[in-house]
Amino acid sequence: EAGVVQSPRYKIIEKKQPVAFWCNPISGHNTLYWYLQNLGQGPELLIRYENEEAVDDSQLPKDRFSAERLKGVDSTLKIQPAELGDSAVYLCASSSGQPTDTQYFGPGTRLTVL
Amino acid sequence: AQSVTQLGSHVSVSEGALVLLRCNYSSSVPPYLFWYVQYPNQGLQLLLKYTSAATLVKGINGFEAEFKKSETSFHLTKPSAHMSDAAEYFCAVSEVGANSKLTFGKGITLSVRP
Do A45 and B102 count as a contact with CB atoms less than 8 A apart? Predict the structure, then answer.
């Protein structure tokens, strides 16, 4: 069974440029998460989807970040414009949505903003 | 609000020695608890989880953890370290009966000396 797929794996952009990350969750998982992981830190939740509905986006900086999950499967996370402080790893995870369920993580996208 | 404390950022052990990685949680009620491992340039992988059944939980790769309510702890142990255990380890908490949001600790880097 395929795991969570993310692309690109690495992205280098200049500040003020836009960037987008894509995630394909495990088949059948209705809950999808985007996490931000800064160097030397644990992941922090940015947004959680149940099917196509964003049910928790309280930590998403809405002035520059946006996300969508059309048709309740793939998801895209966008930053526009990127700032130097956005350099981090962006992780996508999926699960069946219950609090005891395992969240399965993708390999992440490492973003470097110059 | 829930939180997780992982004291220290780096633990170094000799191959064959006991591995002990500490995790303490703060929560108004006993939560669900998770240990994840992250190898370089990879996503997080679940090692084990406590979901209010047995307090001693066995996971993959010979790891286990014990939930101690009186100490609000969920320390991770392995009797004999292997070189392949070198990685970053994250403890995470999820609130019982609520959504599936995970709150992660800062992580501990485990080094294994030959």
Answer: yes
CA neighbours closer than 13 Å in the CB half-sphere of residue B86? 11
B26 close to B90: Cβ distance less than 8 angstroms:
no
Cis preceding linkage at A81, omega within 30: yes
Asked if B49's CB is within 8 angstroms of A102's CB, the reply is yes
Residue A2 vs residues A82, A85, B40, B63: alpha-carbon distances, Å: 31, 32, 20, 25
Min Cα separation A106/chain B (Å):
5
Nearest one of A89, A86, A68, A88 to A77, comparing CA atoms? A68
Which tens digit of pLDDT belongs to each residue from A12-36? 999 999 999 999 999 999 999 999 9
Cα Rg of chain B (Å, integer): 14
pLDDT tens digit string along B26-60? Answer: 987 778 999 999 998 888 999 999 987 788 999 99
- What confidence tens digit (pLDDT) does each residue in B60-83 have? 999 999 999 999 999 999 999 999
A chain contacts of residue B41, beta-carbon cutoff 8 Å = 107, 110
Nearest to A103 by CA among A87, A89, A91, A88: A91
Average pLDDT for chain A? 94
